[in-house]
Structure formats: structure tokens, C-alpha cells
Amino acid sequence: MDNEDRIRELEQKVHALGTTRRRRGWRSRWAAIGAAVAVTLGGGTALHYASAAPGDVVTNSFVPVAPVRILDTRPAPENVGGFTGPLATGQTHSFQVTGVAGVPANATAVVMNMTVTATTGSSFLTVYPAGATRPTASNLNWAAGTTIPNLVTVKIGAGGQVSIFNLSGEAHVIADVAGYYIPGNDKFISLDIFGTDDSSALFDGGFGPNAGLVFPDAALSTANFHIVLPPDYTAGTALVGTFTWHTTSINCAVSWRPNYSSVSRAGQVHAPNPGVTSGLTGPGDSANGATANVVQSATFTLTSPDNGFTLQPGDSYTFGLYRNGTNGTDTCASDARIDSIVIRYE
Description:
Helix content is 10%, strand content 38%. It is mainly beta. Helix 1 (3-19) packs across helix 2. The protein has helices at 3-19, 26-37, 274-278, and strands at 38-40, 46-48, 57-58, 62-72, 92-96, 109-117, 123-129, 140-142, 148-155, 161-166, 172-181, 188-190, 202-204, 212-215, 220-228, 239-247, 253-256, 262-264, 271-272, 286-287, 296-302, 316-324, 336-344.
């Protein structure tokens, strides 16, 4: 099968994933996302699909995110994760996955785009759960002087970490998170951050610190989102949203867009500002700390308006986020970038 045939086959699998609402059993979950995320082409090139269909409602255990770099062993300014220097012959290094890039503590596995560069000899890299016996299988194979990427799905090991092993020579290693798995009973809506409504924010689909939905510096940027409550939503229960974001500087702020959220129902007048009347807790100014290049998250709660309009399956919920780059509290000298938004429901 040539590369064009493989691409067409992958596109068909991605379409099938986007139209399938429920998948049960770990085999179908892992096989489906493995087909949807990437296919490796000749020469080590990978075609990446970092998320499912826009607004896809899923009850399996995969949460896609815009790619975020969590490990780069090259020296500053590229270094990420605190480990500096190439992996030497026979060396193993373990790095943190949970609590980083929005990966929650209950995540069971992670999907990463692994890259080796500045390689000094022919070798291979094995990626496996920290604390586990290293398998004999390899995830990346290369010749001296080459840079090779590959997409890897690996179980998260002891302490929320993953280990990497280099057989011979030296190689710098880069890891970009593209998604993670959580226990399969969770119900959530994973929003497509690149398909927002009425957005003045920008889009960057690359890997690393430049990826995500971009809120530029010194600008009033907005991004508005729209969800439809699925058939298995329990009427009247709260929706808990989480968005992850990052910046290359400090003192940036991504905020809840006030007086914008609303709920609509077919054949009825929409209910404006449900958050104002229902005790909705928005992220407000979710300011970055003293360290740049740290992915952080903010959580907010969406509830029914207090006017007898109880949320039901099929209701449409609209809300917005923004960055006021001219606000005196936002002294950040760089862009703020949203990586993912997930709405969990009962």
C-alpha cells in the first residue's frame, strides 16, 4: 500500500471515529484512537490528527489536546522538563506526565509525539511505564545524524511518570503530548478549539509552545464556544469545564467573557447569562505564575439559570473566553495559548 492509499484509509477511519458516539472496551478505544491520531509514512514522517471530530461527544477514555511540549533535553532556550543533555548509551530517563500539560492525576496512558535529534550513532528508543520492566520492543529507530519522530501511546507508570531508554550512542529526546486516557466511565465533550464560533483569536496547529488557540499580546481577543447537551446528559446537573493554556512569558491572563453566556432550546426564547443567575464559577483572571512555559488549567461550572429554565438534553449552551491585553493586570509580553477545553457532565 503506498502513502496516498494509507492517507485515504486514515481519513476514512477518522471520519468513522467522528461519527461514532460510544465505544466500549479497551481494545476498541485504543485501536480507534491509534488509527485516528497518526500514521507513519515513509522516511519517518507522521501525519497527525490531534483531535476527533469537532464537538464530538465521547464516553470512551481518550481526551485529545493541542500538542504541548513536556520534554526537550536540548540546552536552553529549547530545554523543557529540567533534564539537560543527550541520552547516553544504555541510559534511562524518567519524566513526569501527570500534572503536566493538563494531564490529570487519574490518567492511565498518554499519547506523545516522540522525536530524537542530534543522534551520534545507530540506535533505538524504548518508551515504557516508569517502574515497569523495560520491554525489548523499540518505539523509534534511527541511523547516525538523523532526526526521527514517531507517535507513541504508553501506559503511565509509577509516580505518574514515563521512562525512555537509549540503546547506544547519544541522542536528544523531545516529547509532545497529544492526548491522554482516563478511566472509561467519564462522560465529556471535547471541544474543537480550532472550530470556535465568532472568534477574534488566532489559530496555530503546530507542535510545542506555538500550538493552540492564540490570544495575542496587547489585544482584546475573544473566542466563543457552543455545545449541545447530549442525550445521556442528566437534566439539571452541573457541567464542569476545564481548559488548559500556556504562555512563553509571565503574568498573562485568560478570563471568562462576562455577560455573554446563554442557553437556548428549540422553540423557546433563549435564557441569557445563566452564569450570572446560577452561581457559575468562572476562571476570572487566571494569571500565570513566575515561571514561563508552564501549562496550567482553569475550571469553571455551568449550571441552569435560576428562572425555572432547567438544563435538559438537546439544550444549546454558549460561552466565551477572552484576553484583555491592555488591562494593567496583564503585563505579559507574549501570547497566551489555549491547548484544550473539555466539558464533563453527568
